Amino acid sequence: MSGTATNEGISPDSGDGTRAVRAGLPEPVKYEPTLPGPVFAAHFHLPGEPTGPYTYGRDENPTWTHLEHAIGELEAPGQDGVETLVFASGMAAISSVLFSQLRAGDAVVLPGDGYQALPLARAQLEAYGIEVRTAPTASDAQIEVLDGAKLLLIESPSNPGLDVCDIRKLAEAAHARGALVAVDNTLATPLGQRPLALGADFSVASGTKQLTGHGDILLGYVTGRTGEPMTSVRRWRKIVGAIPGPMEAWLAHRSIATLQMRVDRQNATALAVAEALRGRPEVSGLRYPGLPDDPSHKVASLQMRRYGCVVSFTLATRVRAERFLDALRLVDEATSFGGVRSTAERRGRWGGDAVPEGFVRLSVGAEDPEDLVADVLRALEESER
Ligand SMILES: Cc1ncc(COP(=O)(O)O)c(C=O)c1O
Fold this sequence. Notes:
The chain starts with 15 loop residues before the first helix and ends with a helix. Helices cover 33% and strands 15% of the residues. By secondary structure, it is of the alpha/beta class. It has a seven-stranded mixed sheet, with helices on both faces. Helix 2 runs parallel beside helix 7 (246-256), helix 8 (259-277) runs parallel beside helix 11 and helix 10 crosses helix 11. The longest helix is centred in the C-terminal third of the chain and has 19 residues, at 259-277. Bound molecules: pyridoxal-5'-phosphate. Pyridoxal-5'-phosphate binds at residues 89-91, 94, 115, 155, 159, 184, 186-187, 206, 208, 218, 220, 336. Residues 89-91, 94, 115, 155, 159, 184, 186-187, 206, 208, 218, 220, 336 line the site of pyridoxal-5'-phosphate.
């Protein structure tokens, strides 16, 4: 039921804006709204035999169904036999894949440089008797440690280092060894990258970031081909109950209507900011996969349609980075990324990433590009004093 595209008016070849505004909309019903409002229900009327689709609120909800259709249409346009499941957060979605697919004695390959909650998942997997191997994202280093693994989790581009790996090549290598492949698509969004078309079995993501883009909801999802692995993921969602509230699901769906406009604006401005930072003497280690001379660009340009809204770079010291963040007027100092309001943080303050003390992750929002570039350059200069 969930996530199989049903929006018949829209062709998979329609433009991204057209597909985003219409994604997941049900067939029009006279006197009903275009996007039905959130359905608040712990249970549904259910006389007689307890057959679905809607029985109990932890298992299914009509508001999720619309959202799951929307995400599925964007992740795998025109692909039949694909389903999407929404979750309470990105970590709920990623954990559902890890913990539903792996058993004691299995081996899994995780990114060594991925999102900073992955080490927590690693410790838990190891406590359950699962062997965890890690490899850096750059240079497709995962291939070296794939033998005998049951699952490969790729994060590309990686957060916060913005390295990229060759998803198609890694998926082929993993499948040749009998391993499933999950790709964390958070940074790219489904308009930037389609992991299933590149050969992955699952696209997993935090919808908290650019997918929903307003910094006001937590959400996650898993898209995958219909079959046993997705059935296990669904079962896992039911067991742990890591479900989104109907209001969050509805807000997410409403936000997806503007996804193409937001990503095009934010990503173009991210490139403008990266270009403005390039060559600045105070800045080292500048990374943006859309910059033609970025180490990730060659592979990224083969598999990504858009390069994301995150730019990272390093200032000489922790104090310099703190002064820079303090001097910014249009950029909020906050964690997370992808929102319409720019945010930045000194990533080292959390202690979980292997980054220099002066490393800054900047998430570019929907402000006017000239204003944002001017603010960043002014803050750079002011932070010198
Ligand atoms: C790449 C990536 N994956 C997963 C997550 C986790 O998402 P959530 O915070 O929605 O659980 C994050 C959060 O920053 C992330 O950056």
